[in-house]
Amino acid sequence: MVETKMPPDAKLAFPKCVRLESKPHLFCPGCGHPEVLKALGFAIDELGIQKRVALGVDIGCSLLAWDFFNLDTIETHHGRTIPTMVGFKRAKPEGVAIAYVGDGGAYAIGMSHLINAAIRDENILVIVVNNGVYAMTGGQEAPTTLPGTRVKTAPCGADRHFVRAPEMIRNVNPNAYIARGITTIQVGLRKTLKEALQHQVENGGFAFVEVLSQCPMNWGTLGRPEKTFEYLEKTMLAAYPVKKY
Amino acid sequence: MAEKKFLMGNEILGQAARAAGARAFYGYPITPSSEIAHFWAKEACSEGGQKDDLVFLQAEDEIGAGFMLIGGILAGTRSFTATAGPGHILMQDSLAMAEAMRLPCVYYVMQRGGPSTSTVIYSQQEVNLACFGGNGNGYRIVYSPSNLQEMFDYGIRVFDVAWKYRFPTILLGDGMLAKTLGEVETYSVGERGLVMAEPEAYMLERSPRKRPIADIMPSPEFEVRAGEDGTEYDCYRNCLNWEEEALAVNEETKDAFVKAAEEVTEWEEYGQKESRILVVAHGIVSAGVKSAIDQMGTGEARLFRPITLRPFPERQLREAAVGADRIIIAESADNQLGRIVKDALYGSGIDIVEHYRPSISILPEEIVGLIRSNAD
Amino acid sequence: MANFKIVICGEGGQGALSVAEIIAQAAHTQGKRALAMPFFSTEKRGGVSMAFTQISDEPIPYPKFGKADLWVALSQRSVDRIAAWLQPGTKVIVNSFLVKDLSLLKGWEVSEIDAVTVAGEEVRNPRTFNMVIMGAMVGLIPGLDRSAFTETLERHFSSKYEKNPELKAQNEKAFGIGYGLTHK
Predict the structure, then answer these.
(1) Hey, is the C-beta of B320 within 8 angstroms of any chain A C-beta?
(2) A-B interface: how many C-beta pairs under 8 angstroms?
(3) Is the pTM of this model over 0.80?
């Protein structure tokens, strides 16, 4: 049991559905994940669906979210969160099923699950955290790594191709809710996640939100937030537009 | 009501799942198991579209199907899949998680030729995979039926056992049984007085649990905490931080498995007790051995047949081996059952003859010859 | 009746598996014990399929067997594929429209049935050739009553009969011709 080390009024800063006992969280300093999760928590609070949410988290940094919330949460295998939540939702349609996945889990090892869930218009929400790199395994190339970026498995620089997931999903599903957000625009991100959840609550079918997120650890910008956010808000944003698709 | 029907093995399994009260099927087509999916798809379909009370979902691959199955289990639904050969390999991904987290997934596996894509019809080469696949220690329950009636009987039992003991459970048949058309007696569980273990959700179970998660899942893998209004929220993980935690998961799972084994282990002996040759075989090969023993009618040999390959009836085999001069292991695989049997008999000193015919059927006549040549 | 063992082999699409299943089903309808097991490769077209049917008054312990009492080859390649199932006394039927070389079958009494020609000329539907073969097979199976087949065929082909009502009479006619060719 982890006893809370938070000041007594800390809960005012968090969504109600956050589990304070598991704070401080286990993500690296400066990581974008807690900001995505915080926006998700506020969206859940606003919709009043805490008791109905089934959250699936992938392997990769997203696994650290396994006890982030007071939400029923399952940690699955790398890339397998989407089918797990698909199976859950089919068996329990009154639940609100969320798959929380990194860009490696969603776009590489789990790509066929993602695209087929979209094709079948599964009534789940998939949140993909895009930081352009395999973070937990130590900075390898992801399908999202931008051209020329030097990473552990692309020491000469990543190739010129990268995945544009919203376009890909739109191509197979004309009705899906599709949007991209960014950690540094919290209000927008919260609104986007709320809309995406609402889409599921109204049985609207597949919902997909990609979130641009920072990884100072693997970007080599730890302790230099200006560099971190320059990369996120200039380089990443130029390649990955933040908008509703 | 009990009824004699003339059905194909795969249809028998579909009917068994229905009789067991299964609600959800997630799968990917592969010969020789596909008719199980066909059956369930038809069951789940009504004139107004898919029925509310039954789930049928064809996945993008067997990995997807296996994890959808896990999703169905987490929702507290009796759920299953069916697969074979290369599909069975992919299913090990979900099986490893089900084994780690005590998720009662049911897999109907109809073995086909191997290795690789091989033939579509028959082998017993998925014993290693079914019993010990994955990166764990094989804490799963594996049944090996030997005829069409047992496909129905054990096709029901796997759902009871899986939910009662909370281990992934495999019905390991083969392509010949899957594709054979023949007579079977179907029945409802009620008329046989069978009581099926009730499923209970792992997630979004908002009524008080009859069985606390702490009684099921290894302790490092879950956190149950009360929210502000007293609602309990369950968080589960399979990624652990320390080797001590991993050891605890393995030991707690093993303890539960050993305890379950006392009640779950099943075996069958056939023939005269004083016969000096003991043939060990499972599944359809054991049906052939029985036929051989009957044809000979001279009492040279008897059969020991594990019905559960996991947990394996080790003690029962050692007891059965007492008085035997020679043990013949016969299987349509190379040393898969053999390895388990020899492990169980270690130190017995009894002469062992290994008859391995990977991916090809073993006819009763062949077994007669085998027994005769070993009778002197 | 002791366990009567039938092996039938044909090119993909010739209906060998259906014939084996229908015979087992009809035997079951008559209160016999019966099993039918297909054995096929991945080639739905262009490969050979074989099937094993057993009929008995006693429970049948194992779905496959090594030697047949009735042996049926629908094509030349099939002859080679199932040659090993011949034993002294095996009754042999070949579809002589496709099986021309009988050299492997010396020593057996062979019913050469030009099923395709018969089905084309007498039934006016060459596709019913496998019903001719099935009739001929039933003529050689002891203890089976041909009347059981009317009902079984009707059940097996119900959806096809709905689309093509003429097929019912054609199938029955083809079956009857085949039966007459072998039944003594």
Answers:
(1) no
(2) 140
(3) yes
